[in-house]
Amino acid sequence: MNIKNENVFLWPIRIYYEDTDSGGVVYYANYLKFMERARTEWLRAEGFEQDELIAKENVIFAVRSVQADYLSPARFNEELIVTTQVVKKGKASITVEQAVKRNDDVLCKATIKIACLNAQNFKPAVMPENLFNKI
Known about the structure:
Layout: E1 3-5, E2 8-14, H1 28-45, H2 50-57, E3 59-70, E4 79-89, E5 93-102, E6 105-118, H3 129-134
Antiparallel strand pairs: 1-2, 2-4, 3-6, 4-5, 5-6
């Protein structure tokens, strides 16, 4: 179940054993997976399925850059929230700020720039107008 708080999308996750490293904490790359899933669910909550965007609009999204800060570890079986908020949008890209939180504590935060690409040639493409207007 997702929650939208003003312009911030919230997606709950639980940490599974497979998410942790030998030290019992979440492996750093998994935070990016959690953020990817939250962005997919955010688009879905806004009424956009990525496979339909490919089939009907011939566009895909690809991460262009990530700036991540790891602040505190998450551990097995914890329930966390991943936040997603658009901070900038252009005709062919969006920039989102995301965070993985335990209650009010930010464990990891990132600024992620996402490019809209033509699904056939992977060149920059103008975002579909209905998607641009909705986000």
